[in-house]
């Protein structure tokens, strides 16, 4: 049986692993520098020819998450990180599905990601696959419902782009439009095909709620419903099937106070029909208010849902510093492709790369990763 990286002596703890990584760089002609203790952002600096790279060394017993990669990418984009012209992220174990999807979404990036072995590094940015493919999924579908506390908080945007995040991980997704306004069908059309450079791509198919039937999307593992704002218009039979429910809101005084009360009523309505679904409140359209205001808003945000969290262990008020959907021009102007050519509109999501990065992609992949970690959507991979 092949030993995993953690079974080798060099990976017994972080110190031995970091020393091993440094030795491999030395062996291949790199100059290695160790920064000050507890230097945020990176663990080693390596230099060769014109390349000056920050190296993040991650000693882990589990796969790398997309959040850990995003933190490293954000550091390299910061003013302090600009002194490096490359980043290298090395770990002991491997990269989870959301992390691999995030790496793929970066395209031609200056960040290399890999797993350290006994004699070198296996990078996954190219054609080398260092982790085995996911196990075949369990039979049956996973159901999501995306609700609203009021118009304009991004319900349809969240539904469509969460579908995109799962499609980037290789899952076929069905989007079902239950909203009488039919914005989902207007913006996404019949659906989106998400290509995969290493095999068959994934599809996002869009269905009208009145025409929805499980047999219409037999290949879809995940079904996401863009629910009606009028709770009574959402079929109780469908709501009872939901495994996960998302309710977007905004992190401002109006979003916390007025939306908070509506969200609590929405939660009560869902719970009268479905006692088993995980419920998530998600901050959408997040704009950094500065540290002082952020802490005030976060306290108020948590207080609004404190009682609900105490009595419902499947209710999740997501910390916006951990996972949120950041405000961006890509999302704000999503749908302009319809106006450009109304006679023959194309179907697309706000996942285009700008300078090698796409914040909506990263944020929705992080959201999918959070749900997987917190609420067990990992059953998809069992």
Structural description of this entry:
By secondary structure, the chain is of the alpha/beta class. The protein has 2 domains: about 5-125, 3-Layer(aba) Sandwich (Trna Endonuclease, Chain: A, domain 1); about 140-380, Rossmann fold. The protein is about 35% helix and about 20% strand. It has 12 helices and 14 strands. The chain has helices at about 15-25, 65-75, 95-105, 155-170, 185-190, 235-240, 255-275, 290-305, 305-310, 330, 335-340, 360-375, and strands at about 30-35, 45-50, 50-60, 85-90, 110-115, 120-125, 140-145, 175, 190-195, 200-210, 220-225, 245-250, 280-285, 315. The strands form 2 sheets. Strands 9-10-8-11-7-12-13-14 form an 8-stranded mixed beta sheet, sandwiched between helices. A 6-stranded mixed beta sheet has the order 1-2-3-4-5-6, with helices on both faces. A hairpin with a 4-residue loop joins strand 5 (about 110-115) and strand 6 (about 120-125). Helix 4 (about 155-170) packs across helix 12 (about 360-375) and helix 7 (about 255-275) packs parallel to helix 8. The chain is globular and about 65 Å long. The protein starts with 13 loop residues before the first helix and ends in a 7-residue tail after the last helix. The relative contact order is 0.12. Mean pLDDT is about 85; it is low at about 125-140.
